[in-house]
Sequence to fold (202 residues):
Amino acid sequence: MVGLRERKRAETRQRISDRATRLFEQRGFESVTLADVAAAADVSVKTVVNYFGAKEDLFFDAEPAVLDGLVATVANRENATATAAIRPLVVNGPILAGPCSWRAVDETMWAAMRAFARCERDSPTLTARRASILQSWLTPLAEASGSAAWAAAATGVLILRHSIVQDGLLAGRSPLSVRRRLNSTVGVALDALERGFSDGQA
Fold:
């Protein structure tokens, strides 16, 4: 059972993250300071730094959980290939390894995703950080799969996925249109990845 202290810490962390995201989307990432975030969340700058470390971590605060989900799925795949194991996490929902299916997407959620995507695309800092995050996934995915080659190829597929979803959002496409594009393009890439490592290396 989660104690009161841990629950309050989680609530504070989520409040800081939510307020920061709204500020980033409204003003642009580069224009928002840690002091702005602290004021919006009604905490000190020190508290913000204690929870997140850097401003970029506020924007990408969900990424560690995404990686954990991917790594756990690959590591616990039993008799499935690593590619088959991650396929549902890659194509079955609008957010990588997220709990929401494509059928659950509504206009409000899609609009929120579009605002988030626009904020990231408009910021050179966030664009660079996204590339760095994806690069950092190579080692844990290699360790989970037992194949550095598979991890490198799989990361390429994840980069492709991110680009398709982000491009679709910013172009004003519907969830159905983006889903079809994702299935036809990333699905083919996953098929190729499956064939390329069919000898059991991953």
About this structure: Residues 4-27 form the longest helix (24 residues). The chain has eleven helices and no strands.
